[in-house]
Amino acid sequence: MPEGSSGPVGPIGCGDYLVPVEFGPSFPTITYRQIAYALIDLFSIKEPFYGQSGLYNPLYQSSLSVQSVTVDDTMHATVSLSGNLVLGGECDGPRVQAQIEDTVLQFSVTDVTVLLNGTPLADVLSVQGS
């Protein structure tokens, strides 16, 4: 992240902040498909830094796919991902979790559970971080 930058969520992952970036089309009505497309767009960025912005992308080494998105009556979203998560260091765990969760939370859901290969993302990250 460029020096002196801050965003609406943070600090996370060694004092970083999440900074929203517009990427892809916007939709007036949110559907499960749009949540999936937003995640697909996020996972498609394969550079360590987003354009010329200097914003770090902790997911660039990972190979993730969206398997399903469900939202229950309480607006709790469950996102099932598959693939391989590659972290670049100890600070990437919180960065990855925040990036994925906040991508989903922008779509008017109250909270989100992320599963990676059937395991809660937080559990996967705690194992990789140790």
Topology diagram in text:
Layout: E1 9-12, E2 16-18, H1 32-44, E3 49-50, E4 55-56, E5 63-71, E6 76-84, H2 92-105, E7 111-116, E8 119-120, H3 121-128
Helix content, binned percent: 25-40%
User: Average pLDDT across residues?
Assistant: 85
Report the order of strands and helices: EEHEEEEHEEH
Largest sheet: 4 strands, mixed
Overview of this protein structure:
The protein is α+β, with helices and mostly antiparallel strands and 130 residues long. It has three helices and eight strands. The two termini are 25 Å apart.
Structural features:
two-stranded antiparallel sheet, globular, alpha+beta, 3 helices, 28% strand, GMP Synthetase, Chain A, domain 3, 27% helix, single chain, 130 residues
Compact overview of the structure:
This protein is 27% helix and 28% strand. The chain has helices spanning 32-44, 92-105, 121-128; strands spanning 9-12, 16-18, 49-50, 55-56, 63-71, 76-84, 111-116, 119-120.
